[in-house]
Write a structure and sequence with these properties.
- It is a single chain.
- By secondary structure, the protein is α+β, with helices and mostly antiparallel strands.
- 65% of the residues lie in helices and 16% in strands.
- The protein is built from eight helices and five strands; from the N terminus they run ββββαβααααααα.
- A five-stranded mixed sheet has the order 4-3-2-1-5.
- Helix 1 (53-61) crosses helix 3 and helix 3 runs antiparallel to helix 4.
- The N and C termini lie far apart (175 Å).
Length: 209
């Protein structure tokens, strides 16, 4: 019986989630399987892979043949790298300690690159969000300015209001000659006061008679 490591499709339409399984090559894709090795979710960025590393390595060392997608996943998680090193130990090309040291070095480098990718994605998302907020703020300011300009009084209306207030000042100016006429009548009172000594003279002349 030939054993294959392949994916079984689950999830809803447009958002699939795959189960990584070891199954008989004659079984249907989503049919019976021998062992569940993990899960692969391509809907996230980067993709989420939950793999039982030791069991997957055991099946690979026993000769299980992975599908193309499953092989890419196993390479990504380091299963194929570990198989290559273990075969080197078997052939005497290197010791088990050297193989383990090389695998740890490869695993650390891989983890650093994944972390750098995640950080880069987060920074890009934050930058895109900041730019979107700035664009929305600019649109809001432009809309507010347009509303303010629409609600502002037109210059012609201001001129008409000013013209309507002008006659009041003219009426006040027209009332000024009345005060001037009153001022002109003041000398008559002064003339009357000047005529008063004549009466006093007449009173002084009275004893002579």
């Amino acid at each position: 019986m030939a054993t294959k490591i392949r994916l079984q499709r689950h999830g809803r339409k447009g958002r699939p989630i795959y189960t990584i399984v070891a199954a008989d090559s004659r079984a249907k894709r989503d049919g019976k399987f021998i062992e569940n090795l993990g899960q692969y979710n391509p809907n996230t960025n980067p993709a989420t892979i939950d793999l039982d590393f030791d069991r997957a390595l055991d099946w690979i060392m026993k000769g299980a043949e992975p599908s193309d997608t499953a092989r890419a996943i196993l390479k990504y998680k380091g299963v194929m790298m570990k198989k290559h090193l273990l075969l080197g130990v078997t052939k005497g090309a290197l010791t088990a300690e050297q193989a383990e040291e090389r695998f740890e070095s490869w695993s650390t480098d891989k983890s650093d690159r994944i972390d750098a990718k995640i950080e880069n994605l987060n920074n890009s998302a934050k930058s895109a969000k900041d730019q979107r907020l700035k664009a929305e703020a600019a649109v809001s300011e432009a809309r507010a300015a347009a509303i303010a300009a629409k609600n502002a009084p037109e210059p012609e209306a201001v001129e008409e209001a000013t013209a309507e207030e002008a006659p009041t000042a003219e009426v006040a100016t027209e009332d000024a000659p009345a005060a001037e006429v009153a001022a002109e009548d003041a000398p008559a009172a002064e003339v009357a006061a000047e005529d008063a000594p004549a009466a006093e003279v007449a009173a002084e002349d009275a004893p002579a008679e």
